[in-house]
Amino acid sequence: MRIGVDVGGTNTDAVLMSVDGVLGKVKTPTTVDVTSGIVTALSALLDQTRVPPPAVSAVMIGTTHFTNAVVERRRLQPVAAVRLGLPATECLPPMIDWPADLAAVVGQHHYLVHGGNEFDGRILSELNEAEIARVADDLRLRGIMAVAVSSVFSPINGEMEFRAGELLTSRVPGLDVTYSHQIGRIGLLERESAAILNACLRDLARTTISSFRQAIKEMDLGATVYLTQNDGALMTAVQAELFPVLTFASGPTNSMRGAAYLSGLQDAIVVDVGGTTTDVGALTRGFPRQAALAIEVGGVRTNFRMPDVHSTGLGGGSLVRADGDAVSIGPDSVGYELTQRARIFGGETLTATDIAVAGGFAHLGDGNRVANLPHELVAQVTAMIGDAIDLAVDRMRLSEEPLPVIIVGGGRILVTRPVAGASELVVPEHFEAANAVGAAIAQVTGEVDRVVALAGSSREAALDTARGDAIRQAVESGADPATIYVLDVEDVPLSYLPGNAVRVRVKVVGELISH
User: pTM for the full model?
Assistant: First the structure.
């Protein structure tokens, strides 16, 4: 049996699952420190199901720890960016497009040295070991213990990044090095920024995941801890300590994977209505459609894999304001304080949940406390909520062809009318815990995204090589080789590059191997 946990801005959800499906589920308020909320949810789940802790083999956690740290600019470690690229790239130094407040917290420490490759793997300039030695000496003087190493076209050949890291750590013992080619894709600035974000989060990742392990141990679970990534896959706790940025946007991804499992639909639009936001994304073959463009995280452009999700500040805890004829809803929310501040629970704040109860769409709390709300206000806010969801769904559609729309999340009560453009509206059983279900059923993936020069070789050979590398990645991450299959293959000719260049992307997926 597995336990899936997903931490949202308002609630922390947990489910116990076996091969037969969902055996139990709980929803508890998210706590300020997040970890204690996870412990509370796990304890309540075990009490509810009366399953002996040794029967649980794995705990899969989707967490907002690391996204929140970047957004809130807290608990971030100072980082030095070391770029291998001279004499090229000098005009655009690292972190040039970062928000000033975030750059100040991380520290604007960057070094440009010789190195890098051309798109086909040829050397752009030789690595200068004397330059690397001077960088290491300066890092030691400044007391900087985290470094992000990036190199031009390193996803084609990462050896130069590895060599630079070896030279740095040999002169600065204990230095924590992040290599950009292990995280991002071809674009240098976005890949470099992703590596810097990862490096500044590693210390927090070790502390956070250690607390997860300790909590599991104290509950006598003895289960293996996994974290969910933003592509719907799992990574081990050790991998998560090395690559915390890969958990960004794992919450919406978990909800979409859970929606696919609970509804049985593989291609659909998913609307996840939470307490703080509504996240809308598209399912393709049961997995979230990936964003094709650079994604901003905390104001920083990155290019590692991220789901294509449209988020709007609309949820069960969204504040409703009425000032004469001016009525607004959100984007601010009472969040995890919903059960204390909403009117139906004895508070004084008018929320979207209060509107749903006043309109007769839900039966929660004390309905008498909202019975005197003007009917015009209730009708107007209800229409505004419906319009916002219609617009978000429309933004996710790639054609006029109607698609099924799956509604999940604890704020499902806000969806009170058919969604425009939907071929059908599906509200599956256990919809309120779809995010935790998605964490519990998460699989293991491997992905390769590279530019290949086909001079002297065939397209099929390039795809076969990429496929083999992707499968190897998945197996190293814990996938059962017998269950691995190809989820997506893409090859795009790059006519603007010489050498008959092609961008190749292959993604495979498999089940977590049983131990």
Answer: 0.81
